[in-house]
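tool=predict chain=A
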Amino acid sequence: MLSLKLAANNIKKGFKSFAPFLMASITMFVMIFVTASIALSPSISKLKGGSSLSQVMGFALIVLSIFAVLILVYSYRFLQTQRSKEFGLYDILGFGKTRIVGVAFLELLLSYIITVIVGTICGIAFSKFLFLVFVNMIGGNYFNLVISPTAILLLAILFFVFFLVLMMIGVWIIWRSSSLDLLREESKGEKEPKSNLFFAIAAVILLGAGYYIALTVEDPMVAIMKFFIAVLLVIFGTYLFYISFTVWYLKLKKKRPSYYKPNNFITTSSMLYRMKANAVGLGNITILLSMTIVTVVVSLGVFLGTENSVKTYYTREAKTFSVANNTDTKQDIERIKSAAASKNIDIKNISDMYFAQDLQADRVKSSKDQFITANKQGAMFDKNSYFATLTTAQTLKSLGNKDIPSLKDNEVLLVDISKNKTSFDSKIKSIQWYGETYQVADTLKSVKDFPASGVTTISSKVMMIVFANNQAFDKGLANFNKTISGDQGFSNLASTSIIFDIKPVDEKRFTKAFKEEFKDNKDLSISYRSEALQDQRAQIGGFVFVGFVLGISFILGAALIIYYKQLSEGAQDKRSFKILQEVGLSKEEVQKTIKSQVRLIFFLPLVITIAHFAGAYLMIEKIVMLFDIKDRSVIFTISLATIAILALIYYLIYKATSRVYYKIVER
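tool=predict ok
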């Protein structure tokens, strides 16, 4: 009973020390509560794309849980350092380490109860607010988020485990330390770190290697695979940069004559003495800020590219699709018109297509005016690997492409349909397509209204081969299947599609008429651009929403680390500046020195973060362009806006937390 009363009084009277820890605990609880409550809510099933959102939120829950443990350990360790003198006094007075541990346990238990109660109340409100944001983002019409009791129970259990981990850390610190150690824990200084040229060079090499990978990657799919390698290199390089490179640089400054000027002497010495303690915190802040920028830029880029992406697949509002050779499309078009007329629905711009997409063809070495295919497929996205779309001249004419020349059976047209128009040289005169040689009648720069394939957005080498007629097309596809697909146990089939424009409001009625008209053909399906866009927005919206939640969490995490760093630095630097004033340094000189040091320490992570993002920009741009953002200026604008907003938030954090530092030091 005495221990419980003492624990409660400690929290009440020492609230100034407990407040940062409780703030960190409640903040992390609320952010995880948001992800868990939305992921487990029955309301999700009533939204399009709800299942995918639930899965992505589950991933975010794991990420945030790991992140929360790190923040809680960081903040609790700071709290223990602040209260070590108090625990040492208890031990000297005969309280005993067992009862001290008991008091620490009860303090944590009370903190846990406060965190769960306050965090649940705030979490419910914040979850409902963010759910409204998500529903508006995807264009949904269900706005009531039902909070599942399972989510509250899950969070309560999860944080109970987290606090048990903190308890074990606290017990270990108290038990291994003597009374004298506990009394001196808060006031003991740190040894000046030793410079290590090897690790300083390693930092430069790791950062350089990460930047090199990011700047030299060309293929978007390769960019995704190499992105994680580059990230790991940059993370390790960042920590080594702060731990070793900065120490080496500061010690190098000590050898310069300018070091003996009062301001430089105090700032450099203080920075060098404190850099070992600052290094990990600065590294954490830099990584969190970098993660925030990358998460927000990729999320917004993907969301804004959604409409573009859908339009490349649906060049007109409606599309029928079937897999069959030489289907009578003229008859199908008449039946589609009949189905529309039966419901008084207006359709227009009807076109038919006969094609096969995404056939991997490897090019062997030859003269520049020849394209010769290899008889075996190599690795996907290899430098000699191309993806071919086969179609007919009649298909292009049906889509409204004018000036399509008449072709003989042994002639083809080539079209470079890659985004960057770098698939092949326009000087190609002939193509040897799996045993059959065709003369290239012309090379077209683009074609109108032909739907993109999945490969178009991810490969830099995508071509279209246009045959003279259906018979020539069938022969070209058969030769491919005979040479390539036969070994794989399946054959690529030709696809037939009819596309046309229809008003979205008429789509439900037309679908009913279409199914009645084609009830004898179950292989023929119909889909619409508006529905695909809504589905895509729902799925991508979940991804963006999670990116938004993670971005907020990373910023809050960085702010908490900054706040703790200012508190700890202020407490330790207070003694140093007091000594400087006692030996004759004026108050104005002390303030000037404090400001220069704080600014240097504080804004260094922001500068390094911007450098990291600049190095990764080309790779991030290629990843975002997978989602069919064609205008690079959009990605650049999003990036600049994100950096500007983050810099503003960071500056506001600086202004708020630096006051804490100044008050402690100047007191």
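Residues 310 and 532 are 7 Å apart (CA to CA). The radius of gyration is 33 Å.
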